[in-house]
Design a protein that fits this description.
single chain, 752 residues, mainly beta, seven-stranded antiparallel beta sheet, six-stranded antiparallel β-barrel, 30% strand
Length: 752
């Protein structure tokens, strides 16, 4: 990597330069430029330097986003009436006088027809500010849609089922109006090929016995985690850094720590730093920007550089590096990410992207780090919607239905996957068509294309180059370095970091809401509306629950809520059903005094037709000989959030570690039998509680965590979340033969 050393050496003398000829792999060199270090004011970028395409929206900083928004506001909207849209065509519709106030007594209807019968029409509004519904509204119909919108909407995106859409805007005679709306209507490009679904993502298999399509058991629906995401735990992703304006906590980009002196980020972030003369600092160990902790480190930028072949129009080679002005102090809360396996393209893997970016397209940024789960898709599939703009230097991740994505302000941040027990950096957040739009996944710089170049820089700068495996070792000092998987280096010094390890902490008491259908096997037992116990789907006709939930009850008094999340909102999901029970089987050796054998089965009056979208699916049963001691387990339910407290409307989850029965007996004595399993923190604070009884405790069924197995049924405990008193659960793998004999003849689903 002599060219990298030359570029660095010249820049250290204060010279702007491009490195020597591109490396033999054709991936270019690095351009390193000094970051702004003096006082500055941010001025609008010269128009000639901005060549935005609406299909290429870099996720960087507010001023650029505002410029793009202003450009859209100046776009001419089409008149009311009928319009034909060819595949890929987009038009703008807006309220009259926009961005001024719309007039009273307005009535305008747009009717759109896609010229291709296979196109779908999508309406997306960046600005939507109306009066209450009785004074003004927009009605969107056609193609399976019948949605009415009014008031202020932070985000409005709807997609039709076919090539028709009707948009009707009307206002009353009120003279007090608002800004109105500015929306884009586009026709999708019909797919021309069928891309096979990766087995890592797909959970649909064929049940050999019944010859029916059946969901694989135990696959969670974690597509919710920064549009559509959740807050991370504190320092959960210790390689995450924030690029901020010096002296502030205002994040304009993200990045990932490679060692104690180097950060990898997006080229367009670094170009912004120089174009805008942004005096930049790097925050490490940050989580809540308004409440920094002693873990957080604020370090200046010595130099920054980006790939010499970076194209700010196509966003190709959108990767760059930052040299910190002083080494970071590494710890379990601040440590590097691992490099990926250069031989893999990672299609089909579930990935996590994180950042402090906006929570909706054009929205506001949070102060707390957020994360979102997104599946990696093939470049061929990604190019079907991006019209060939995806190069081999890019990697795409997102859901076909949209709703989950990185967004503005997340640029440069990490896209990571768990590979062989370590978290590896497969992508650097780069661009996308809007944020979280259907059929438009996020686009990231593909890190496997730049491993040699990055490791060449690491050879010259930073210690702790070897972090938990050869994949992060510096290569030998030659320009023909071996691939990272085979590179060698001296062992790290005692006490050095380990890369790629998350810091998950436990999450119902002390828990958090799940997302809709995240645990598709979860059911609630109810007599009327509010669940009083939980349970889990184990076949198309049987529910596993606790004996004490149904002991002495008649089948006619018990109903099972399936596909539920928030039982106070009837329109939240169409998957929810309330089913009667035809049979209750309590374990014959259940002891109501000791809660030994606290296990029961409920037979539904009619079978569940498992849907292909995995919104209702069975959990997998555990391995018979596994004690499941000292594993992280997840408990879900609608139980109280404190001992004796009130129940939430939303399904909650909490993560608790299991333990050996001998350890649990130190708290409960001989009350703990071999038919029980305990889980909880020594200090308390996380636990199941009243109303969670009968619900599932699950854990990963394999090292890749592609499915979950139920190892416990919520049973009893001393209070809830008390220190020294873990929750007690019925041990499911002690009852596998009994369960199998009772549910014989029903349809079960295999593991993925």
């Amino acid at each position: 990597m002599g060219s990298v050393e030359l570029s660095l050496g010249l820049v250290l003398l204060g010279v702007w330069c491009v490195g020597s000829a591109p490396a033999s792999n054709g991936n270019g060199t690095w351009i390193l430029v000094p970051s702004g270090r003096g006082s500055f004011t941010i001025q609008p970028r010269n128009e000639s330097l901005i060549q935005p395409r609406w299909t290429v929206m870099p996720r960087n900083f507010d001023s650029f986003i505002k410029k793009l928004a202003n450009k859209q506001e100046k776009d001419e909207g089409v008149d009311c009436g009928s319009h034909s849209l060819s595949p890929g065509q987009t038009v703008t519709i807006k309220s009259r006088n926009f961005p001024g106030r719309y007039p009273p007594n307005e009535s305008c209807r747009w009717t759109f027809q896609g010229t291709s019968p296979d196109s779908k029409l999508t309406i997306s509004c960046r600005v939507f500010k109306l009066k209450p519904c009785r004074k003004s509204s927009v009605l969107i119909t056609g193609g399976g849609l019948n949605k009415k919108y009014c008031k202020n909407q932070e985000e409005l995106t709807e997609t039709s089922d076919d090539n028709n859409m009707d948009v009707y805007f009307r206002t009353s005679g009120s003279r007090r109006t608002k800004k109105g709306f500015n929306c884009r209507v586009s026709a999708s490009v019909p797919p021309t090929t069928t891309v096979p679904t990766s087995p890592v993502i797909s959970s649909t298999t064929t049940n050999q016995a019944s010859d029916k399509t059946c969901q694989s058991c135990g696959t969670v629906n974690r597509v919710t985690r920064i549009v559509g995401g959740i807050e991370t735990e504190v320092n959960e992703y210790p390689w995450q850094v924030a690029l901020v304006y010096a002296g502030s906590s205002s994040v304009f980009c993200g990045g990932s720590l490679l060692n104690d002196e180097l950060v990898v980020t997006a080229a367009h972030c670094i170009k912004a730093m120089t174009d805008y003369e942004i005096e930049t600092e790097v925050l490490l160990g940050a989580h809540d920007l308004d409440n920094p902790t002693a873990i957080q480190q604020r370090i200046g930028v010595a130099y920054s550089g980006y790939h010499s072949l970076y194209d700010d129009y196509t966003m190709d080679h959108d990767i760059g590096i930052i040299l910190l002005s002083s080494p970071a102090t590494l710890s379990d809360r601040v440590k590097p990410v691992c490099f990926p396996d250069a031989s893999k393209d990672y299609s089909g893997y579930q990935a996590i992207t994180s950042g402090w970016g906006t929570l909706s397209e054009g929205g506001s940024q949070p102060v707390i780090l957020n994360e979102v789960d997104v599946p990696i898709v093939t470049n061929a599939a990604c190019n079907e919607n991006y019209d060939g703009e995806i190069t081999s230097n890019m990697i795409c991740a997102g859901h076909p239905e949209g709703g989950k994505d990185a967004c503005q302000g997340d640029s440069g941040g990490p896209l990571v996957v768990e590979d062989n027990g370590k978290w590896v950096l497969v992508g650097v957040t780069s661009w996308g068509y809007g944020c979280a739009r259907p059929d438009y996944p996020g686009v990231y710089a593909r890190v496997t294309e730049y491993i040699d170049a990055l490791m060449g820089v690491m050879e010259s700068y930073g210690s702790n180059n070897l972090c938990d495996g050869a994949t992060t070792a510096a290569p030998p000092a030659t320009t023909t370095a071996a691939p990272p998987a085979t590179a060698t280096a001296a062992p790290p010094p005692t006490g050095s970091c380990k890369c790629g390890r998350r810091n998950p902490v436990t999450r119902i008491v002390g828990g958090q809401p799940t997302t809709v259908h995240e645990y598709p096997w979860q059911v609630g037992l109810t007599s009327y509306s509010r669940p009083y116990c939980g349970g889990s789907v184990i076949s198309n006709q049987w529910i596993l629950t606790a004996a004490h939930c149904v002991d002495g009850d008649s089948p006619s008094s018990v109903y099972v809520l399936i596909g539920e999340h928030n039982y106070a909102i009837t329109s939240e999901t169409t998957a929810t059903e309330k089913r009667p029970v035809s049979q209750i089987i309590v374990h014959p050796q259940y002891n109501s005094g000791t809660y030994d054998n606290d296990m029961a089965l409920l037979k539904l009056s009619s079978p569940i037709p498992f849907p292909s979208d995995n919104k209702i699916a069975p959990v997998c049963l555990p391995d018979p000989q596994n004690a499941y001691d000292d594993v992280d387990a997840i408990v879900t339910g609608w139980g109280t959030l404190s001992s004796g407290g009130s129940q939430p409307n939303e399904l909650h989850e909490v993560t608790v570690p299991t333990m050996t029965n001998s350890k649990c007996q130190q708290s409960y004595g001989s009350s703990i039998t071999s038919n029980m399993i305990c889980a909880g923190l020594d200090e308390g604070g996380k636990d199941s509680c009243q109303g969670d009884s009968g619900g599932p405790m699950v854990t990963a069924g394999n090292a890749a965590q592609t499915f979950m197995v139920q190892i416990g049924v919520v049973s009893w405990g001393y209070g809830c979340a008390y220190a020294g008193y873990p929750g007690v659960y019925a041990r499911v793998n002690n009852y596998l033969s009994w369960i199998s004999s009772q549910i014989a003849g029903s349809e079960t689903c295999p593991r993925p």
